[in-house]
Amino acid sequence: MIFCKILALLGLAAAALSAHADNWPSRPIRFVVAAPGGSSLDIIARTLGDKLKDRLGQPIVIDNVPGASGTIATGNVARAAPDGHTWLISYNGPLAYTQFLTRLPYDPQKDLVPIIQTSSQPNVLAVSADLPVKNVRELIAYARARPGKLNYASVGNGSSSHLTMELFKSMTGSYVVHIPYNGAPPAALSLVSGETQMLFSVPSVVMPQVKSGKVKALAVSSASRFPLLSDLPTVAESGLPDFESITWNGVLVPKGTPVEITQRLNREMDSILKMADVRQRLNNAGLEPIGGTAEAFQSLIAAEAAKWEPIVRKTGAKLD
Question: What is the pTM of this model?
């Protein structure tokens, strides 16, 4: 008897969720961005929002919530009502490896449901203009011959910029001193001034300095050449096989959001990311649109967490 009542209650709950999904969305959508206005994440969110508002019949309200390396926004959405009216766009740090750098108020793989990977980009390995190396092989040899004599900049402790160089050091057996900066502009300027000699950072940060001749770009950190910088070789093809480190981002919703809603969001966003004008807008921001299934994005998050945990443990990096 009790078992029958439980089944009945479960059936009523399922029916309620289905009815809710049928009426969704019933009010404006809050699209939380784990970065400030004008950032690459902001550009992606606004691009998707512009297209989705007509498809869904409701306004998409962009809510920029920067701070704490993206964990404030990510945690806020993890605790939001799972009714399909709160979305998140976040990136690899808060979703994959920041959990190993500090204690988080959410579990990225349990408290959020992945919808779609929106884009990715590699880090560019750049060196100061006066460093006497022309490629990755020469850089590795130069660094190995001078343990502790070279400095590398990062855009912050525990950032992708930091961890990518630590992966490079680990795989090359070199010792280069880490100097973290508060953001990308001062890190790039330290390379220009010669205060540091090496930096991994996203293309939008270093390529303007490369074009001006103030720094040299040696390679990209992706497994294959980046279509937007096809003249640059990869680190892997330049003497360090299997090296790969990318920055990526995607859309997620709170755990418990009805599957009918998550599936529709994936279909709509995947379709939008294939549109020519959307691809051009993201390319102009230095981003390569990805798309695909929710399952593929979920697998990426899990794989990246497994990859970076031992690197973080080895470096002893912590968020301030």
Answer: 0.86
